[in-house]
Prior knowledge:
Number of strands: 15
Strand content: 15-25%
Number of helices: 15
CATH class: Alpha Beta
CATH architecture: 5-stranded Propeller
Shape: globular
Order of helices and strands: EHHEHHEEHHEEEHEHEEHEHEEHHEHEHH
Mean pLDDT: 96
Distance between the termini: 31 Å
Strand order of the largest sheet: 2-1-15
Largest sheet: 3 strands, mixed
CATH topology: L-arginine/glycine Amidinotransferase, Chain A
Helix content: 25-40%
Amino acid sequence: MLVEINFDGIIGPSHNYAGLSPGNLAATRNRGLTAHPRAAALQGIAKMRANLRLGLTQGILLPHARPDHDWLAALASDYADADSHLQAQAMSASAMWAANAATVSPAPDTADGRCHLTAANLVTMPHRSHEWPGTLAQLRLAFADPAFAVHAPVPAPFGDEGAANHMRLAATHDAPGVEVFVYGEPGGPFPARQHPEASRAVARRHGLDSARTLFVQQSDEAIAAGAFHNDVVAVANGRVLFAHEQAFADQDRFYDDLRAALPEVEIVEVPADQVSLGDAIASYLFNAQLVTLPTGETALIVPEEARETPSVQAWLETHVAGNGPIRQVEVVDVRQSMANGGGPACLRLRVVADPATIDSRFLVDAARLDRIASVVEMHWPEAIDADAIGDPALVTRIESARRALLETLGTVELIDR
């Protein structure tokens, strides 16, 4: 039976605020602050617990080896002697944002009837460009069953940032869907991270039906306002597209094409005169998990910041009180992730598959989350100051903390990946 599974990235012990991501307003604004890796990871685990209570199927992706000594070696450097900016890039815990891990096309959409996953290359930002080998190793382990096809990244220079710029709509999760690839065009104050050629290459690899595949340009206004990924201004699930009025360059054409490909689609557009782009991005209203509950109803899982933004809270209350498709709003605390520019949707990769075909070590229940939380509480640093990145004692603690988690979960083959 095919179901949607949310694979959340466990926030790693090297979580810090180095401000490495131009265009990500929260990350640059909070550069230099003290980060709290233990609290961050426990917040992410609490979000997964809440998903389980809602009746959703939950998976995990694991922290990568940090510092990335292999990447530094390729630069003819080692961590102790590296410049501070290279230390920060090698130490980044950004793989926690699993939405950037890969693009996923479920079996009902593909020519060969397998679920296809292409690891994202993330070449636009140096600190993320070296994530893909660790991601690919995990994907090939978790999805080794013949029901899946796991692909290496699209080659540079065509930047691909994974599911954060990809949406899927379908009558039901196990029905053929319409896949929407959202790309940006360079030229504004911030880099456009998704190249159209990367999106087209992924669609060809996955064997998608061209009649049910759309390529849509993100608006320049959205990117300039800080929507560095499409999932900061739009999210889709089932029949529902939830988007800001200024999300796309040619909104009307996109909506027409989408209705032609999926006549039953329900489009929920938030007007700019009710919620500005600035409020939408600051609150991460759209970087929410839009999910189908076991009852069949659609729910929206938003960060605390959405409830604390008056225009956003007012819109949510009005929509839920009306007859719109989003019938329930759940609020989660992921403030440590939010301060680095990642909301609830950033932390998860959605895969439609039969759970029986997935390596069980990457699926969790409440008991397994208890074990993960115990490791975090015992081993994750409580705090990392901005000037502590080069501390050898911190490096040792981060590496031993990750090892403890992998040993607890029985995934020791990933220790060096």
